[in-house]
Amino acid sequence: MSFDTLGLAPAILRALAEQGYDAPTPVQHAAIPLVLEGRDLLAGAQTGTGKTAAFTLPLLQRLFVDAAPAGGKRRPRALILTPTRELAAQIHENVRAYAKHLRVFATTIFGGVGMQPQIDALRRGVDILIATPGRLIDHLERRTVDVSGIEILVLDEADRMLDMGFLPQMKRVLNALPRQNRQTLLFSATFAEPIKALAREFMRDPAEVQIAARNSVVATVTHRVHPVDAARKRDLLLELLSQDSRRQTLVFGRTKHGADKLVKFLDQHGLRTAAIHGNKSQNARTRALADFKNGKITVLVATDIAARGIDIDQLPLVINFDLPMVAEDYVHRIGRTGRAGAEGLAVSLVSHDEARLLRDIRRLLKQDIAIENVAGFEPSSPLRLDGNGGGGQPKSNGAPRKPNHARRPHAQTPSGQHPKPHAAANKQRNWRGGGRDARKA
Ligand code: AMP
Q1: pTM for the full model?
Q2: In the structure, what pLDDT confidence band is assigned to residue 229 with cuts at 50, 70 and 90?
Q3: Residue of the CA atom closest to atom 8 of ligand 1
Q4: Residue 400: how many CB atoms within 10 A of its CB?
């Protein structure tokens, strides 16, 4: 199967060939013909599936090949709404590459950088806007952006926009756009009720495409857990990173402050490290990502939201310094390794108080996880892996729990009936995640 049969113009096919794309990915194969027909589309696809091209390519074809812009001042004809600045920048990069042989101007609108350059770009005239919701609203309020000519709207990573609390802003934007003849494409990894409600309210008889099963993880990723006392995590991380200091490693921490402290610690021990999180300026984030991509730094410490959707090719190792509070985020985190057939390793440092989080992840993954003590870092007490002993979730964190977690029965294991301790150094045990039949694909 090649791109030739999908109905894309030679100028687009040439750009794809220059990108080295031989064949469409499954989401592209399924979505492109539907979008070219003019259908609204609900697509279930995660980052890494090629979803950006799945909406960008037919969008370019429809707006800039089949119906070239009229003369006069350009005004935006397509709006791509996306949760984070990094994703916006990445989409912009892709749009530029795919539209290389077309006369199309795209610009990004996101917070954390000055308004004026964005206002200037809008005034000069653009065809495609790639925006995060908050800053787009700022521009709408100041009337520095004209969205009355939007013909195609893309909601990218809609579930994450909702998770980040952007629903009111999304609705405001949707209400500001023309309704008639607007095509709406919604991409999301998951389809909880609020997303379906949004689709019902704002979309016209959408076609549906579901790619990888929800929460599936790349088969080429090996998962490994190192039990360790919380106080010794930093040293264990240093030990692991020092084993191969040239290996590009993405480290996940739960908090911004924790990420900063880790960077300082690793820096002091001679590892070239940077952090990427919501408190960093846009310039600092862009620089850190670029330095990581070109190998200037080998360790990037990220929080979940900042890392969402970041595309880093062929990342061999992801380390979870902290487990995520929500099991689904584990899937998003390790989605960055083992892509495109490459082998990947996802290592989690798990302390006693994270046992319940680990159990949630195990259930979600339905995949073996090797538990392996590292010699010299064995925890003072074993992880308790069944029932609700073992400390469970740290009490201080008020992170929302998903409803399906709440329904999970907590076996009341009498104290003393813990799983066999596995304190012997390097003893390995495999888990098989329990079935989660209640989950919908
Ligand atoms: P995305 O899911 O949009 O973040 O894309 C993930 C990665 O796949 C990006 O690096 C794209 O450049 C790449 N990609 C997208 N489509 C294809 C394709 N058809 N063949 C090869 N690589 C692709």
Answers
A1: 0.60
A2: very high
A3: 50
A4: 9
